[in-house]
């Protein structure tokens, strides 16, 4: 099961603890892993108990979508095994609709790109055991100037539900300057009123700090502007999303935008880091490449089960940047608690040269007693761990206390 990709490996390091000195404990959560906002005010539609996983058309196809691409993507998610790993949402982004509503005021699927309509497509996607998502905008128009849903919330939600839609990404263009705290709840209520359980993904770009208010409105909320397929964009977005870690939890997640893995603008090392950090941050794992045509490297990154299991861990606490050092702080330790008294950490080398990076237990919320040097044997003879990490790469590890690991086994 363990895929030994070089940078997304999970290594379970069992810490043997002598009976008389079982003192490795997690520090009070407010010291490192502040979870004081965890689980408050969640939307309450029962979804998003773990971060959503799936695919979205935008990052690769932009407006070049049509029903064949969507159907073939659904097929590919199944045949590649991605669906089985949890990637179940097939999300259509902007450009699916005609430029204007019909005479009844309804949105209409683009007749050239989606001649069979969205309902037929939804039926097809459902027949594959997958779920289907669509896109609209909390404004007059979408970003590509299709009709938006502002002031049409109930009609549009009803239409989406009648098609069998399972997920709505709701964008922020042409918003007339109206407060998002007014605009986004309208669609929440409209979706709820349909009686169909629909995942509500807010795409407000982080402008009004949605982590502070969105958990009672959506199942996830974008914390940043759009990702670009570059190392600079990906790292900058990771850092912004990190600030809101205390606000994520089952029911509502911070969303640093969709994955660029496989789109060609970063190296495979950088994509491994992108995927590992997104997983650790409990970000939605929404694939943004053409899954009908992935390289072996892209496939290996996206299907790393250990990394996915970190993302989908039931504890649902967002991992975060806990320690940086080295030139411009580019040796980074990102870490977070997992269920079963485990801790995940990533050694992330954001420098342009390979380096040995050391994670010390105390910087990750693991305390050791005065007996620390006697507590750990095996791989960890001290209370830290070091590994060589290539430039822009990362290495992910999971630590488990011996007692917890034994009782889980
Ligand atoms: C509507 O909202 C209520 C209150 O949060 C919730 O219990 C119910 O499950 C929601 N229904 C749907 C279809 O989302
Ligand atoms: C598949 O991807 C490669 C690049 O990885 C590209 O050159 C090729 O054109 C793609 N094929 C199709 C059918 O899209
Ligand atoms: C340190 O460990 C030894 C045995 O390994 C034990 O006898 C002693 O009490 C421990 N000291 C503390 C402070 O836990």
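-> sequence recovered:
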């Amino acid at each position: 099961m363990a895929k030994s990709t070089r940078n997304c490996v999970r290594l379970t390091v069992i810490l043997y603890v002598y009976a008389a000195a079982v003192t490795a404990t997690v520090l009070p959560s407010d010291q490192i892993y502040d979870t004081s906002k965890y689980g408050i005010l969640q939307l309450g539609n029962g979804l998003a108990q773990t971060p959503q996983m799936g695919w979205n058309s935008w990052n690769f196809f932009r407006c070049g979508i049509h029903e064949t691409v969507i159907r073939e993507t659904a097929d590919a998610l199944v045949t590649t095994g991605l669906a089985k790993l949890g990637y179940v949402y097939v999300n259509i982004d902007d450009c699916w609709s005609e430029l204007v509503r019909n005479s009844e005021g309804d949105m209409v699927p683009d007749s050239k790109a989606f001649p069979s309509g969205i309902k037929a497509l939804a039926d097809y996607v459902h027949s594959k055991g997958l779920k289907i998502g669509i896109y609209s905008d909390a404004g007059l128009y979408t970003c590509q100037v299709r009709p938006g849903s502002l002031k049409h919330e109930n009609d549009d939600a009803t239409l989406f539900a009648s098609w069998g839609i399972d997920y709505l990404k709701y964008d922020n263009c042409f918003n007339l300057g109206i407060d998002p705290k007014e605009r986004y709840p309208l669609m929440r209520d409209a979706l709820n009123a349909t009686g169909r359980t629909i995942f509500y993904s807010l795409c407000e770009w982080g402008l009004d700090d949605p982590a502070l208010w969105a958990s009672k409105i959506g199942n996830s909320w974008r914390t940043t502007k759009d990702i670009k397929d570059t190392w600079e964009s990906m790292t900058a977005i990771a850092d912004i999303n990190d600030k809101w870690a205390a606000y994520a939890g089952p029911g509502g997640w911070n969303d640093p935008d969709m994955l660029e893995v496989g789109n060609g603008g970063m190296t495979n090392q950088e994509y491994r880091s992108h995927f590992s950090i997104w997983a650790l941050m409990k970000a939605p794992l929404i694939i943004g490449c053409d899954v009908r045509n992935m390289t072996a490297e892209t496939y290996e990154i996206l299907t790393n089960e250990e990394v996915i299991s970190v993302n989908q861990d039931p504890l649902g606490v967002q991992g975060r940047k806990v320690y940086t050092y080295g030139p411009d702080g580019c040796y980074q330790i990102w870490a977070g608690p997992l269920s079963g008294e485990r801790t995940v950490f990533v050694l992330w080398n954001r420098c342009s040269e390979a380096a040995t990076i050391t994670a010390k237990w105390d910087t990750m919320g693991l305390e050791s007693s005065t007996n620390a040097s006697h507590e750990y044997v095996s791989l960890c003879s001290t209370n830290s761990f070091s590994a060589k990490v290539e430039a822009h790469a990362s290495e992910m590890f999971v630590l488990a206390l011996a007692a917890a690991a034994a009782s889980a086994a």
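Confidence is low (pLDDT under 50) at residues 1-29, 369-381, 402-409.
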